[in-house]
Amino acid sequence: MIKAIVLITARPGFFETLNLELSKAKGVKSVIATLGRWDFVVELEAEDLNNLEENVLKLAQTRGVKSTETLIAFPSV
After folding, report:
1. CATH topology for 2-72?
2. Which of 39, 58, 74, 77 has a C-alpha 20 to 30 A away from that of 6?
3. In what helix (H) or strand (E) does residue 49 lie, and over which residues does it extend?
4. Which pLDDT does position 77 carry in this prediction?
5. What phi and psi values does residue 70 have, to the nearest 5 degrees?
6. CA quadruple 62, 64, 68, 71: dihedral positive or negative?
7. What is the pTM of this model?
8. pLDDT 10s digits, 18-64
9. Could you tell me if 59 and 51 are in contact, meaning their C-beta atoms sit under 8 angstroms apart?
């Protein structure tokens, strides 16, 4: 299982609808609305890198998403 954090900036006027849409997306474990550089912090899980790529691309293509940055988590040693 691969875990990632996706940082998302919303387009103006889409904050509330994005909050709902992001929480329904495949692999999403949690969505946290924030203030500052990023509007949402999304915790994502996938079976492998291919699935992670698909899920992140779908998030990035969600209506109202302006930009994303993905941080892949390494397992603790």
Report:
1. Alpha-Beta Plaits (3.30.70)
2. 77
3. helix 49-60
4. 63
5. -110, 130
6. negative
7. 0.91
8. 999 999 999 999 999 999 999 999 999 999 999 999 999 999 999 99
9. no
Relative to beta strand 65-72, strand 2-10 is antiparallel
For the chain, the helix, strand and coil percentages under 3-state DSSP, each to the nearest 5? 30, 40, 30
Which residue ranges make up each domain of the chain? 2-72
Tokens describing residue 39:
């509007």
Residue for token pair 């998030």: 59
Q: What is the DSSP string of 18-32?
A: HHHHHHHSTTEEEEE
Q: How far apart are CA 53 and CA 3, in angstroms?
A: 12
Q: Which tokens hold the place of 58?
A: 């779908």
Q: Which residue has the tokens 């397992």?
A: 75
